[in-house]
Amino acid sequence: MRVPARLLPLTAATAASALLTGCFSSVGTEEAGSEGKRIRVAHMLPPRSGLSPLSDDAFKLSRWSTAETLVKLNAVGDAQPALATEWEQSGKSWTFTIRDGVTFHDGTKLTGEAVVNSLTVAATASPKPRILDGVELTAKADGNTVTVTTGTEDPLVPQRLSSPQLSILAAKAYKGKTVNPVGAGTGPFELTKVNGTSSASLDRYDGYWGGKAKAPGIDVKFVPDGTARAAALRTGEADIVEAIPVSQAAVLDQDLITEVPMPRTNTLYLNTEKGVFKDVSLRAAAREAIDAKSIVEGVYEGRADVAEGLLGPALPWAAELRSTVKRAAAGKPSGQTITIGTYSDRAELPEVAATLQQQLQKAGFKVKLDVREYANIESDALAGEFDAFILSRATVLDSGDPAAYLYSDFGSDGSFNLSQFADKTVDAALDKASETATGDARRKAVIEAEAAVLGTDAAVPMLHERVIQGDAAGVVDAAHDPRERELVTADTYVK
Question: Residue 6: is its pLDDT beyond 60?
Answer without folding.
Answer: no
